[in-house]
Amino acid sequence: MTTMTPSQGGPAQPPSPQALARLVDLAEDAILSVDEDQRIVLFNRGAERTFGYVADEVLGQPLDLLIPVRFLAVHHQHLRAFAAGPVDARVMGERRPVHGRRKDGTEFPADVTISKFHDGGRLFLNAILRDVTERVRAEGAIRSLNQELEARVKARTAELEEANRQLARKNEENEAFVYSVSHDLRAPLVNLEGFGKELSLACQDVKRLLTDPAMPPGLRVEAEAIFGRDVAESMTFIHAAVGRLSVIIDGLLRLSRAGRVQYDPKPVDPGPIVDRVVQSLRLTAEAKRAAVTVGPLPAAWADPRAVEQVFANLIGNALNYLAPDRPGRVEVGAVAGGDPGASTYFVRDNGVGIPEAYRGQLFQAFRRLHAGLAPGEGMGLALVRRVLDRLGGRIWFESAEGAGTTFYFTLPAGPTAGEPTGAS
Amino acid sequence: MSPPGKPLMILLAEDDDGHATLIRRNLTRAGVANEVVHVKDGEQALDYLFRRGAFADRPKDVNILLLLDINMPLVSGVDVLRILKGNPATARTPVLMLTTTDDPRDVETCYGLGCSVYIAKPVQYESFVEAVRRLGMFLEIIQVPPVNGGGAV
Predict the structure, then answer these.
(1) pTM score
(2) Residue A319 · residue A328 · CB < 8 Å
């Protein structure tokens, strides 16, 4: 290497031809030259390592020795073109990878630069090349990993889509089941209520008979006590129980219907709908000394009846669960900057709030947190969530016990992708 | 007004004995005194209407009003309604559907097939009585044509 170092203080000296020859010989890359007849005239140590030949075996031999047979024809053509062309150095293999052939016949991919020059009236064609088997293998591994990954993502996506379809189907089945069961439950209920009333009527007849003067007074008092107290009380409980069952079953029927009803989404201005809902709840609001205010509401893309159902349930709930000890305030409005592509609305009250422990089950059917405060089957919020589900919206809430609750929900602001515009 | 000389009878097709009993009692209580024949499935209802099978010998010269439950074994109420309305001989028989559901699809189907009135059997007794009372009024004003096209219209 000392030959490469400029001598101290003197002008820079180029290395001697011997030093250059040594540089070539020691290079890690394979360096080889051929003459005009494509006979190998230079073969460095890198070339020996790369091709598995010692220089003596190949010097004077045709270059074809180092090239896979199937590339010979095209290689000859390229080399002639390069020899005759104006360019004196370039990288090979820009269009397809270049391959070399080792002594043992195996092939390897290579990065190759070629050059040419005349020396002493003779043309020399030179190649510097490097075995890139490892790199190509690694690239192949990365490529196949990528392909595998893509395939797995695709398969997983398909699985998820299938799972989604199955869930939707399951949901439909469940709703159909709930529907038919609730429907079947109504028939015996008609009997219970009907014959309960028949019994009441029969009791009235018996009581009338008891007024007959022929009835011994002691017996009459006793019988009147039985019919007036015990039987009447039993009938009252049966009647109340049947009424409650009936309300529950009707709620179930409505809930299962929410999953099956055909929605007809179109542009909806919620303003007039909310005004109508508030108007219909006016008496309730007055009875509760509650003020309902409605702010500006942005348009939505939904079924108007479903939108009315959602607002009616939420505003009705807000009114039902106001705190009895202070004037009620219910506020309906919209918030900006929610989900993209959606309009976000809220219904806020200053009512009793939702206890921490019940927040997880709020949207489940038959959960009534303040059963004493208002009538209902505990179906409203389950229904609201199911309806919003169907409309492509979502619902959540914030609540402070004793201070009030705010329900937020979203509806699509415009037609969602893949959905018919509904204009037809 | 019914054609003179032909009594109006009520054919009650109802598989639930309780419901049938309640309906009969309340018809009576509402002042409807017409004869009531109770059959328990759609097949029997059709046999009665077309005077065949067990009912081949039933009186011929009667006007029939059909109270028809939707959910019945063998032949459903909807099928009875379809067959009845599809046959010119029976198409004009007034039919009152009595069901436990007010499912809009069922209501639509039945009115589409030509039933006269669709009553959801109410669980609340008061509304049930009200429905029967309306039914009684309906019976008083209805024009009941003869079954089997008896030629007396």
Answers:
(1) 0.53
(2) yes
